[in-house]
Every structure is written in C-alpha cells, then in structure tokens.
Specification:
The structure is a single chain. It is built from ten helices and twelve strands. By secondary structure, it is α+β, with helices and mostly antiparallel strands. The protein folds into three domains: about 140 residues, Beta-Lactamase (2-Layer Sandwich); about 80 residues, Helix Hairpins, CATH 1.10.287; about 150 residues, Histidine kinase-like ATPase, C-terminal domain (Heat Shock Protein 90, 2-Layer Sandwich), CATH 3.30.565. A five-stranded antiparallel beta sheet has the order 2-1-5-4-3. The protein has a five-stranded mixed beta sheet with strand order 7-9-10-12-11, covered by helices on one side. Strand 4 and strand 5 form a beta hairpin. The radius of gyration is 51 Å and the shape is rod-shaped. Bound molecules: adenosine-5'-triphosphate and magnesium ion. The site of magnesium ion has 5 residues, from helix 9. The site of adenosine-5'-triphosphate (ATP) has 23 residues, from helix 9 and helix 10.
Length: about 450
C-alpha cells in the first residue's frame, strides 16, 4: 500500500491522531513533572550550599584564622573534582584560601559558568557569597547532576516519542491493511451485485464489529432484493405462460373465421367469439395493471377511518341474491363497529372477489358465511364456505397472478381475484390467511384496529 493510499484510510488516520494526542498530553504532563523535579533538586542543592556555608561561618566565629583556613583546605582536598568550590577573603579583600580563580561576586546567590571560575568542567556552579565574621566567604556546588538529569530526561522523551510514533505508524498501517483487505472483498461482492449477481453476499467475519453490522444489514437488503427480483421474474414468466392460451384461442377463432369466409360461410358467430376472447384478454391486462398500481402503494395516502364490518355487510347484502340464484346461502354476522384505516373501494372489491369465489367455485347447497370481529388491537374479516376448498399445498399458489386450480380451468375467471385481495391486504398491512375449513375454505384478513372515526 502506498503512503498516499494509507492516508485515505480512516483507521490509519485515527491511529495517528490518537497517538499524536496521547504524545502531546504525555509531553505536557512529563514537562510539568520534570519542572517540578528540577525545582525540588535546585532547592536541595541550595540547602546544601547554605549548610556548608553555615558550617564554615561557625568555624570562623569559634576558631582563629589558621584553624579556619585549615578547615577550608581540608574541604578543598575532599573535593578534588571541584564539585564543591570555596573562596575565602580577608578583611582587605585578599584571598586567604580557595580552589577557584579570583572572582568577585555580589553578595547572595548567583549561578556562574565554570570557565569564569577556572574550572575545566562544562557545568555552571550555584554559588553563595556572604560575610563569615570579618571574612568574605563564597561557597559553590556544581550543577552537573541537574544538567545531566535534564539531558537524560530529554533524551528519554525523544526516544519514547520516536518509538511511539514509529509503532503507531506500523500499527496504523497494519490496521489499514487489514480493513482494506475486508473492504476489498466487500467491494468485489458489491461489484458482482452491480453486474447482476444478486446471490453475492458481503463477508461477515463474525467479530460483530461496525463492518460486520453494515455487511449484515446490506446482506439482508440483498436477500430481500433477490427475493423480490425472483418474484418479479416468476410473475413475468407466469403471465407470459398463462396469456399464451387465450391468445392462441383468439388466433384459432380468427383462423376459423378466415377459413369460413373463404368458403363463403357466414362468420358472424366466429367473429363475435373472437371479440369476446379479446375482451377477456383486455380485462386480464386491466386487472394486472390494477394490481400493479395497488402494489405501487400510492393509494395509501387516501386511507380514511372506516367500519370494516359495515363494508363487509354491504357487500354481503349485494351478493345474497346472487348466492340464492345459485342455490347457495349467504349469511353475515358482521355486527361491528370494527374500525380500521383503509381504502373503501379496494376493500369492497376484495370482499366481493372472495364472496364471488365462494359462489363460483362451490356447488349449489353451499353455505357461505361472512363475519367481522374486533378485539385485542385487531379487526378480522372472514369469508368462509363449506364447498370443495383448496388443498393446503395450493394455498400459496392461488395467490399468484393468473393461477387457477386445475378443476377451475373450465369455469369463468382469470385467476387474478385472489392476487388482488393479496395486493390490497399488503397495502393495508393486513395479514391474509387461507385456512382449510374441512370441508371448505376460510379466508381471514387481519387488520390493525384503530379506536374509532377520526
Ligand atoms: N372458495 C373457493 N373454493 C374453492 N376454490 C377456490 C375458492 N376460491 C378460489 N378458489 C380457487 O382458487 C383459484 C384462484 O382464485 P382467483 O379468485 O384468484 O381466480 P378466479 O376466481 O379463478 O378468477 P377471477 O380472476 O375471476 O377471480 C380459483 O381458480 C379456484 O380454483
Ligand atoms: Mg376469483
């Protein structure tokens, strides 16, 4: 990975940013600690200078000059490396004893470079000058320890910072490369999807991290998309397959009419049948279009609060005579009220389709029942019959467009009635359940209940 590429990775930038932040904080804290330590050491050094000074001063007050000089000489001998320096002057300013050059310092504290004192060391001295009886005494201590400490601490900081920076760089690169490797597989999967392979899935490592969660969410969407596309493909195939039969019938009718016309026979009947056939095809397309429009969901905006029991009652009233004419009975105990949000026209159409199915696909003598119950936050509309029913294995299939049971192929209809009911149920967020009523079929539509007319 090139450095420019590395910089584009969030993980790398994050690692670098965090390290720089920690490093800065560490530097500030260490600098503060170092300052504190230095001032403590300086105070201790001053205390030692003061102590030595006080000791010599005491000698000057208690003993004679020879003793004083002897005592200082002993101290000078004890410090051959010039870590401690002394200078004693007499009343006239003449040097009595000392291990440094002749320098005149102001009374009190001063910090003096070694060169000025004739010392070969590199470090400055911390010095105190003052009166010791009739003498002027100067005592000093080298700053070597303090300066060494400063050097050690600064070097330690430098190395630590360099090490932290390099290890971050290595860590950031490692992280970026690891993430990059996962991203590359994800990118490859997305590219496959873009080329039409909807079965491609993003890798999920199982660590449950951010990338895993996003990948899992995308995979869920892809699975749903794959299902939808497959369903669409199935629908198109079904429609193409199912429409071939009526189109063939239409062609045969026209061919027959042409043959009859060639023989000079009257073709009015054949043409009337052809018109009827094309009307059926037209109606099928109109119904398919209507289902597609319902599925598009635009009508949801026109939903109003309505009493589903009243809607079902009205449809049952209209169909009770039709059922009677077919030698069947249609009863309704949809008492209500059972309030839902919905589209009255579509719901009326759905109930009509279900009742029509019971009338059309069941023999005379069948009892058809309609009911609507409300409670526990739901409203359920049911249309049941004690006719031949639909085998449970076919319950899903009859909801597909144009699908009809083998035995119904000769009865009137297009096989779109239940598809429309399903589309309307989905639009309303309602659950559509087909149950084997043994004997017969029961269709339940379960809606979310609302509290009343708004
Ligand atoms: N109450 C029922 N009893 C028995 N079979 C039924 C019943 N309702 C539906 N079916 C079966 O399910 C199939 C699909 O029904 P659907 O309503 O979708 O189409 P259809 O009634 O054949 O035509 P149409 O488009 O005119 O409604 C029917 O062809 C029939 O075989
Ligand atoms: Mg039908």
């Amino acid at each position: 990975m090139r450095p420019a590429e590395l910089w584009r990775h969030n993980s790398f930038r994050l690692a670098l940013g965090v390290t720089l932040f920690i490093l800065t904080t560490l530097m500030l804290a260490s600098g503060f600690g170092y300052g504190l330590m230095k001032s403590q050491l300086a105070a201790r050094q001053d205390a030692r200078v003061t102590e030595i000074f006080a000791g010599i001063r005491q000698t000057s007050l208690e003993n004679d000059e020879a003793d004083l000089i002897e005592s200082i000489t002993a101290r000078i001998k004890a410090s051959p490396d010039l870590s401690t320096i002394f200078l004693l002057r007499g009343e006239g300013g003449n040097i009595l004893v000392g291990n440094i050059d002749d320098v005149t310092l102001p009374p009190g504290w001063s910090t003096v470079p070694a060169a000025k004192l004739g010392s070969a060391t590199d470090y400055p001295y911390r010095m105190f000058s003052g009166q010791a009886g009739q003498y002027t005494l100067t005592v000093g201590l080298t700053n070597a320890d303090l300066d060494d400490l400063q050097e050690i601490v600064l070097a330690a900081f430098g190395w630590a910072a360099l090490f932290a920076f390099l290890s971050t760089l290595a860590m950031g690169t490692f992280l970026a490369m690891r993430v990059q490797a996962r991203m590359a597989t994800a990118e490859a999967a997305v590219a496959r999807v873009a080329l039409g392979d909807l079965a491609a899935r993003l890798p999920v490592s199982g660590r449950g991290d951010d990338l895993d969660r996003i990948s899992a969410a995308i995979n869920t969407s892809l699975a749903r998309l794959e299902g939808l596309v497959e369903a669409m493909r199935q629908v198109s195939a079904d429609i193409a397959h199912e429409l071939r039969t009526p189109l063939n019938r239409l062609r045969i009718r026209i061919e027959n009419a042409a043959n009859l016309a060639a023989k000079g026979t009257d073709v009015t009947e054949e043409l009337a049948a052809a018109i009827l056939e094309s009307d059926t095809i037209n109606a099928t397309f109109a119904a398919l279009l209507r289902i597609a429009q319902i599925e598009a969901g635009a009508r949801r905006e026109q939903f109003v609060a309505l009493d589903l029991a009243a809607v079902l009652r009205d449809v049952a009233d209209v169909y009770s005579e039709v059922a009677e004419d077919s030698g069947q009975t249609l009863t309704s105990d949809a008492a209500g009220p059972a309030w839902v949000m919905g589209d009255k026209e579509l719901l009326t159409q759905s109930f009509a389709n279900l009742i029509e199915n019971a009338i059309r696909h069941c023999p005379p003598g069948t009892r058809i029942t309609c009911s609507a119950t409300a409670g526990m936050g739901h409203v359920t509309a049911s249309i049941g019959d004690n006719g031949p029913g639909i085998p449970p294995g076919e319950h899903d299939k009859v909801l597909r467009r144009l699908y009809r049971l083998e035995k119904s192929r000769t009865t009137e209809g297009t096989g779109l009635g239940l598809s429309l009911v399903k589309a309307v149920a989905d639009l309303h967020g309602a659950e559509l359940v087909l149950t084997d009523a043994a004997p017969g079929l029961r269709v339940d539509l379960r809606f979310a209940q609302i509290l009343g007319a708004l």
